[in-house]
Design goal:
alpha+beta, five-stranded mixed sheet, five-stranded antiparallel sheet, 27 helices, rod-shaped
Length: about 850
């Protein structure tokens, strides 16, 4: 209530008790309402002076109006109500939308002289004052419609400032239940406001204002909401009996409400007896005033009260399958400065501001997403905290087009704590926008290693040693030059041993050890910073490369490359949308426009699109990611095969979290299927005949197909020539190395190694004796064959010019056990004893010690 300049008790302190106060009140009422009447006496003059000094200007606050969320009907362009949020359920109406029978019912029962007085009904007020003087426990009737309107305005203002439900209840009690001196003071102030009100507004405006603000039981306020709630009709279609029932409620709304059929008093069993009695009173007053005929009166009295309760849409549960999208939007309103500077301001905007919020929800994608969840993701699976969520964003704008989840939405914490099929958490989003902490996203995080690789100038066709091994040290300049990462191997899927290959091959096959080999040549901190640039933070809002201020550690480790951090599917969808959008990242946007209760535009939450990676890098990354979705790629099972070019990436964290992200140039789908809070395996467990780990491949293509049908998709830009160049690598020579050392040396240099058969060599057995190709700069990834020595090789000595007998002796002395004369060539000039001309194998060649060595010679005459 407004602060008075002077209290009634102060001005009239010389009067004897309540009788005197009440008498003077009657005088000043008469003087104010009928100024022509002369009033004399010091006490009366003092009272009138006090009355004149009471605040007279009552600012009519905006009604507490519901905030309404809309989505667009794509066929008609019509905005359809998704749900509403309110403290007070209210549907404002125009004067013409209220039928005459409703006006007649409310005026006959509450203020029959409404159009005759100037804001205060002298007769009714005097009667109420005298009743109070006699010691009535409650303030009696007699207030005009204008006074009741004032009272409701003041109650609403009080409730708007109330911090608790108890404080709200006190607002109503203090405005309606005060008695004695306090009651008269309140009524005097109401009268003062009412008189001034009628100087500023027309009778019709005040009457409609009253019908819009009055409580009709529970959270139903205003005749529009009351008609819809109690009888399922708009106010304009109220019948006589319905209008009389509602008019009867305003005197004591919660006593006369007709939405509690099981009540022993005023329930269905007794024909809503209290409400019927009050309705009959209203009908009697209407008959007395000549508003209805005797026949109409009798028929209405004889007609039973028949409620048709229509529960209003309120809260996200009313949005049914779109409840989690609704909850996401709700949290935006509760947190974004566009809706108020403080938490309290934003909460009031949500429940009292009368905002019209036009969302980005596209039912052409939402409905297929909901159906896919119903078909493939049950609300619960025994023995695990099973969960699934999907989200689709428009790649070129960041608009969130759909969001679905396997659970049923509820804000009943006790229910969700005991039954995993119910939840209020938005699995697709983060803690700030739905309460979820995100989930380990697995290999979908490899995108950021790929981007950093390309930004550093490396090629998709560069070859690396992707054999699984220990990667003990990696760079992480966020916390120093090097960090110890792991002393053990990080397995590939299905214990794959890995291989030497190109980055394109690693991406298509999602080879863990291949990406670790890439990361080994990069910087873990830089990889995580790429994620930050592309809109990715952890589920609790931390940057992926910074220390946790609460714990005090910096988490840049090898596991980062493989997606061990908890991140929301929406954030990951935004990152892949960035690649699809030529390197332009758009912040998520779920609200297209906002208007206030009067239809005036309000600036919606800020949404930006920023070039965060170079177009050529995005195009080249997209080229690699297209391989994932094609035959042989890990994401091929999620390709809807509708002809739309797609990029994508799978992700699996250990055995208990899975993801699938895919995108056209226009729309991006992310699907998560896994455990909400435990680590139960998704493998070798089935639903509808499909392994849980593969359910993502049943859900994602349904949503992406729907998105492709609506938004289409173009060919992705061609990759950058430099970033797909063939990279020549120095081929080291491994001759003289043991086999294992030779293999590791060549693999480390990026070559595939084939160990051939052992060859004759002077090297010890097991030492590489031959390599093909031998060395030089060749294409990385080429196959190099190495041959170890068998330990049996001896170099044939050079015996040219010797006598044949000497030569044979020398060869046998070198270790060859099978030496014999070879071909003889006659030469007239040759010595009679003969001269060795060559050997077979030739001198210097390495030959098995058991091989025959033939000694060729010449002499004057051959034998």
């Amino acid at each position: 209530m407004p602060v008075k300049k002077r209290t009634a008790t102060g001005v009239l302190g010389g009067l004897a008790g309540l009788v005197g106060l009440s008498a003077v009140a009657g005088v000043l009422i008469t003087a104010t309402v009928t100024p022509a009447i002369a009033v004399s006496g010091a006490a009366a003059s003092s009272a009138i002076t006090m009355f004149d000094q009471l605040p007279s200007a009552l600012e009519i606050d905006q009604l507490m109006l519901p905030t309404t969320l809309y989505y667009k009907n794509p066929d008609t362009g019509e905005d359809i109500v998704l749900t509403k949020f309110w403290d007070q359920n209210r549907i404002p109406v125009s004067f013409e939308e209220v039928p005459t029978v409703m006006y007649d019912a409310i005026l006959s029962s509450e203020d029959p002289r409404y159009y005759e007085h100037g804001g205060v009904d002298l007769i009714g007020t005097t009667r109420a004052v005298l009743t109070n003087i006699r010691g009535g426990s409650e303030t009696q009737g007699g207030s005009s419609i204008s006074q009741q309107y004032v009272k409701n305005v003041l109650i609403q203002r009080c409730e708007a400032d109330a911090e608790t439900e108890e404080a709200k209840a006190a607002c109503f009690y203090e405005a309606t239940q005060s008695s004695g001196t306090e009651g008269i003071q309140r009524k005097l102030q109401e009268m003062r406001y009412a008189i001034q009100l009628e100087k500023e507004y027309s009778k019709n405006e005040i009457l409609l204002g009253y019908l819009d603000i009055a409580n009709f039981g529970g959270t139903n306020y205003g005749i529009g909401a009351a008609a819809q709630y109690y009888f399922g009709v708009p106010a304009s279609q109220l019948s006589l009996t319905q209008a009389a029932t509602l008019a009867g409620m305003v005197q004591n709304p919660n006593s006369y409400r007709i939405d509690q059929p099981t009540n022993e008093v005023n329930g269905a069993a007794d024909g809503y007896s209290k409400a019927k009695g009050r309705q009959t009173y209203v009908l009697g007053r209407m008959l007395e005033d000549g508003k209805i005929t005797q026949e109409q009166h009798d028929a209405a009295v004889a007609e039973p009260i028949t409620p048709n309760i229509v529960q209003p849409q309120t809260g996200c549960a009313a949005a049914l399958g779109s409840a989690y999208f609704c909850q996401y939007v709700k949290t935006i309103i509760q947190s974004d400065p566009a809706f108020g500077a403080t938490d309290k301001d934003r909460e009031e905007a949500l429940k009292r501001g009368g905002l019209n919020v036009y969302t980005s929800l596209d039912v052409r994608l939402q409905l297929p997403a909901e159906q896919a969840m119903r078909d493939w993701a049950p609300g619960r699976i025994d023995g695990m905290s099973f969960g699934a969520a999907s989200v689709n964003v428009e790649a070129t704008t960041g608009r969130v087009l759909s969001m679905a989840q396997n659970t049923t939405f509820t804000e009943d914490l006790a229910l969700s704590a005991t039954d995993p099929a119910y939840s209020s958490l938005v699995y697709a989003s983060d803690k700030a926008h739905g309460g979820s902490q995100g989930f380990p996203v697995g290999s979908t995080y490899k995108l950021f290693t790929l981007i950093d690789w390309l930004e550093k100038g490396h090629s998709l066709n560069e070859t690396l040693n992707g054999v699984n091994r220990v990667f003990p040290r990696m760079k992480a300049n966020c916390q120093g030059d090097w960090v110890n990462t792991t002393r053990t191997k990080i397995d590939n899927f299905a214990k794959d041993g890995g291989y030497t290959g190109t980055v394109s091959q690693f991406t298509k096959a999602s080879l863990n050890s291949g990406f670790l080999a890439m990361a080994e040549k990069l910087d873990l901190c830089d990889i995580n910073k790429v994620a930050d640039r592309m809109g990715v933070k952890t589920g609790d809002g931390q940057l992926t490369y910074q220390s946790n201020p609460d714990v005090g550690y910096i988490a840049n480790v090898a596991f980062d490359v493989l997606g061990s951090k908890n991140i929301s599917p929406l954030a990951m969808a935004g990152a892949y949308a960035t690649v699809a959008n030529k390197g332009i990242y758009c912040t998520p946007k779920a609200i297209d426009r906002v208007t206030d209760a009067n239809g005036q535009e309000i600036a919606p939450p800020v949404s930006t699109c920023t070039q965060v990676i170079a177009p050529e890098v995005a195009a080249t990354a997209a080229y690699a990611l297209q391989g994932v979705m094609n035959s042989g790629g890990t994401g091929a099972a999620s390709n809807p095969r509708d002809g739309t070019p797609l990029i994508g990436k799978t992700g699996t964290h250990n055995t208990y979290q899975t993801m699938m992200i895919e995108s056209s140039t226009n729309a991006t789908t992310a699907v998560w299927v896994g455990n909400v809070k435990d680590e139960a395996t998704l493998y070798k467990r089935y639903y509808n005949g499909v392994e849980l780990a593969q359910l993502r491949h049943r859900i994602a293509p349904v949503i992406q197909r729907a998105a492709n049908a609506v938004y289409g998709g173009d060919e992705f830009p061609r990759p950058d020539n430099n970033l797909t160049r063939q990279v020549l690598t120095n081929l080291p020579s491994t001759v003289g190395m043991p086999v294992d050392q030779a293999r590791a040396t060549l693999q480390e240099a990026g070559f595939t190694v084939l160990v051939g058969e052992a060859v004759d060599s002077g090297e010890a057995e097991g030492i590489i004796a031959r390599q093909d190709p031998a060395g030089g700069r060749i294409a990385g990834g080429a196959t190099v064959t190495i041959n170890p020595s068998n330990g049996q090789g001896i170099s044939v000595p050079d015996v040219s010019g010797q006598r044949p007998e000497q030569a044979l002796s020398a060869i046998r002395g070198a270790g060859f056990g099978n030496a014999a004369p070879g071909t003889c060539t006659e030469d007239a000039n040759a010595d009679k004893a003969g001269v060795v001309t060559s050997t077979n194998p030739a001198a210097g060649s390495v030959t098995n010690r058991n091989a025959q060595i033939s000694v060729n010679y010449s002499r004057d005459k051959c034998p």
